[in-house]
Amino acid sequence: MIVPSPFAALLTLMDPRAHTQPVLGSDTRYWEYGDPASSTTVVMVHGFRGDHHGLEAVVAQLHGLRIISPDLPGFGESAAFRTGPHSIDAYATWLTEFLRQLALPGRVVVLGHSFGSIVVAAAAAAPGGLPADDLVLVNPIAAPALSGPRGILTRLAVFYYWLASRLPERLGFALLRNRVIVRVMSITMAKTTSRERRRWIHNQHDRYFSAFADRTVVLEAFTASVSHDVSEYAAAIGTRTLLIAAEKDDITPVQAQVGLRALFPDARLHVLPGVGHLIHYEVPEDAARELRRFLEPVAPAHTPVDEPS
């Protein structure tokens, strides 16, 4: 069953185009949207176990801009890394090389959601950094996942992935793709009171949350996701950064996001009320609005501030 996206008409106007780019020995599948002649390109990095579809509701709000949205290696339609584990360092190296090969003109903004926020931060903090003018981190993982307000859920997830790694290959793969477990995860994270929006969110997770290459990829990426967070890299990131956080995020509390903002040399924080870890699904219009505000001309004496929620 397919639940129609409430943003389908807007997304069609963005004229999605699919491309394939060999990066570090394996094929990266990515989608281009919007105006190819725009002076600003936003490159989007999706979260754990998702693919580019997860950010399309945000893409649909960004008419007038050029958007590049790849599937992370090993997820969606992108091939897994041919050598080495699917670690944060590997994903950061891949992202840097992907952008280097695209050689995007004009202003380049890199956006990372959730797990993607760690990948973007690690790449930006590495020697040489990212070829980007601005960063936007949505639902950033500001502190170790096990310390979140619902750390017990993360511990259950650790057990779930540990069990999947211990079972025979076929059984472990089936457990990782179990629709009941995916639905429980989706119900837990969704905070919207709209029945129609919740139904669409659950359908999105049913369709795209298990689009990974094999068991090894998802287990390695999960280990990476709970072993690192953005706070490790923030102090080394000189790029102007916007953090879009959520009042009801089960993974990172607002207090941790405030602490994270203070670690960046140049960052501002905006907290969206009444939403959790699914900003990109529940309030993509708000995420896009804050991104556009952030891209407005900056005064020379710019001072990082926390925006009111």
Could you name the ranges where pLDDT drops below 50 across 5 or more consecutive residues? 299-303
How many angstroms does the end-to-end distance come to?
37 Å
| Distinct helical segment count | 12
Q: Looking at the chains present, what oligomeric state does this protein adopt?
A: single chain
Largest sheet: 9 strands, mixed
For the biggest β-sheet, the strand order reads: 1-2-4-3-5-6-7-8-9
Which H/E pattern describes the elements? HEEEHEHEHEHHHHHEHEHHE
By helix and strand content, what is the structural category? Answer: alpha/beta
Which percent bin holds the helix content?
40-55%
The fraction of residues assigned to DSSP E strands is 15-25%
Total beta-strand segments: 9
What value does the Rg take, in angstroms? 18 Å
What general form does the structure show? Answer: globular
Give the overall average pLDDT: 93
Short description:
The protein is α/β, with parallel strands linked by helices and about 300 residues long.
Q: How does this model look, in words?
A:
With 309 residues, the chain is α/β, with parallel strands linked by helices. It is 40% helix and 17% strand. The protein has twelve helices and nine strands. The protein has helices at residues 8-13, 56-59, 88-102, 115-125, 151-166, 169-176, 179-189, 195-208, 215-227, 254-263, 279-282, 284-295; strands at residues 17-23, 26-34, 40-45, 66-70, 107-113, 134-138, 240-246, 267-272, 306-307. A nine-stranded mixed beta sheet has the order 1-2-4-3-5-6-7-8-9, sandwiched between helices. Strand 3, helix 2 (56-59) and strand 4 form a beta-alpha-beta unit. Helix 3 (88-102) crosses helix 4 (115-125) and helix 5 (151-166) packs antiparallel against helix 9 (215-227). It is globular, with a radius of gyration of 18 Å. The chain starts with 7 loop residues before the first helix and ends with a strand. The model is unreliable at 299-303 (pLDDT under 50).
